[in-house]
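Cast an eye over this sequence plus tokens and explain the fold to me:
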Amino acid sequence: MASASQGFHEDESRLSARTKDLHRALVSLQEELEAIDWYQQRADATEDPELREILGHNRDEEKEHAMMLLEWIRRKDVVFARMMRLHTSAAGPIVSEEESEKSAGEAEVEGGARKQGEGERR
């Protein structure tokens, strides 16, 4: 998951210290999320109750690490902070009506493009 972002994509000498630190935090967050997924799968797969409990505990520790990284990113990136305020801790649907309509429109366009493309291949 995080392997594509392990290194810098641009010449490191041209990157600010802030960008380098944000990159480090973002890659670390990806790794924590990947670890959560691995532990969840392992906990589901095992038939040993004690091992399931240990794996669940480890998974939840990774969640704590991920949240600490998210908080660090929030404090360092004003746009990220604004998006977190806008999209978290609110009741109701996660996707607004406007976003739902936009997504539905994009799906129709994509579906139409696929149908047209399918006809051309025949």
